[in-house]
Amino acid sequence: MTNTIFPIDLMKHYETPFYYYDLELLKATLHEMQSCIKGMPYKVHYAVKANANPRILHEIKEAGLSIDCVSGGEIVAALAAGFKGDTIAFAGVGKTDNEISLGINHDIFCFNVESLPELEVINEIAATKGKVANVALRVNPNIDAHTHKYITTGLSENKFGINLELLDAAVDKALSLPDVNLIGLHFHIGSQLLDFTPYKMLCERINELQDHFESRGITFKAINVGGGLGIDYVNPAQNPIPDFKGYFDTFKQNLKLRPGQELHFELGRAIVGQCGSLITRVLYVKKGTTRNFVIVDAGMTDLIRPALYQAHHVAENITSTANETAQYDIVGPICESSDKFASDETLPETHRGDLLAFRSAGAYGEVMAMRYNCRQLPQSHFSRE
Ligand code: LLP
Predict the structure, then answer these.
(1) Is the entire prediction scored with pTM above 0.90?
(2) CA quadruple 200, 203, 205, 207: dihedral sign
């Protein structure tokens, strides 16, 4: 049992469901990550999409990270948390004119550009403001990250990025436009990667591309390899901090950076995933003919990952003192049969009123919550209020 990490006496009085964030773990995670890149020309942009809770953003800003945004709303959230414009990488296949304007007004570090029409629009909007916008071209490196089909992004049939065959023309176009400044190439091959082989393949692809462009007399100020480092959803208590060393070493050993060149990363899940849990109260324990259902007050509206990606979040009964265990299906109150957190989960004998924690919910949890069924959004609490 690992429930000592939760302040249960306090939690019993909070309205459920709520997200609980262990800020000490977040701090330790950030510390470990930074110690792995010390002395390297590496910059980590935190991917706001993973968790935009203002308190979390504040902690990450205090640690000195840069930031990766995918919408105007995320840029506003980042600025409100104190991130400076020149640390913002702005990605996304469908940036609106207003969002592009916002980015240019704040002199952001870089737009990660996904298509030629987008490049032209950024150039036009920058010209009307008398500015030059920094851009990187997002390249689709055609590498299979072997992750869930909804979160793999580097294969050629994806909507993301510019295909390799079209890259030369895109680079020429970017260099020819007067109001954009091409600073680099951007890549992202997928999310929740625990095997580093696809990253090694990515490094090899980038080396080839850099050789190719160098032979054309073109070098880049920055290379951005996106995010995707995975976390241990199976044993969160044993592995609360991801393998940053293995991840960064893969790039140190395989990617040939040019003199003065910076390497940028956009990590989301690896930074915030393990520090958050969704805490929910057991409403009813319902005995079926073959199954026992634990019906909780959190639903897919609060944590959609199980319904959307068939993801499994370890569930712990954090208030039970029972010695006996039993198998339960854990379901929420939403009128959808996909509103199910787990099948045959082993829990201590569970009763109405018990609190359950769904672990590893710090990334793509609270931020993906919705109000279906006119439900309230979940609250958040912190190890330091
Ligand atoms: N950079 C780009 C261009 C991305 O598309 C993503 C994630 C990231 C960085 C951050 O990836 P991370 O380090 O967090 O893996 N909702 C899904 C994950 C979607 C990821 C989308 N892109 C989930 O709950 O698993």
Answers:
(1) yes
(2) negative
